[in-house]
Amino acid sequence: MSSKTSEVYKVVSDIPKGKVMTYGQIGEILSMNPRLVGRILHENPDPETVPCHRVVNSRGEVAEKYAFGGGDAQRQKLKQEGVEFVGNRVNIEKSFYKRNH
After folding, report:
1. 45 domain residue, yes or no
2. 29, 93 in Cβ contact below 8 A?
């Protein structure tokens, strides 16, 4: 596993239940392209340990191509953890996890 992959998994593993981060936020923390963050999470070998369902795009939308069942599965997992949605978007004001670098 590359060091960048390990770093992404570490940041994502720290997101608490009921909160989300964006690909861009993680990319900024790790000085990497948000698309690379997405690609790394798409290949996540252990979604129970690395809760990649807690990562959404900059508009608060789930990934329709979420690797573990599609967007509906991601949305359902987030709702089960208490993440609020406004329409198809996460209520960022209530559910956004602000992590220090």
Report:
1. yes
2. no
CATH number of 21's domain:
1.10.10.10
Domain contains 58: yes
Instruction: Report the predicted TM-score, pTM, of the whole model to 2 decimal places.
Output: 0.93
What is the helix (H) or strand (E) element at residue 30, kind and residue range? Answer: helix 23-30
What amino acid positions are annotated as catalytic residues? 52
In angstroms, the CA 90 to CA 31 distance is 25
Task: Flag whether 86 is in a domain.
Answer: yes
Residue 86: strand pairing partners: 89
* 7-11 CB contacts, 8 Å cutoff, 24+ apart: 8/32, 8/37, 8/40, 8/41, 9/40, 9/44, 9/50, 11/99
Number of domains the chain is built from: 1
Give the model confidence (pLDDT) of 36-88 as tens digits.
Answer: 999 999 999 999 999 999 999 999 999 999 999 999 999 999 999 999 999 99
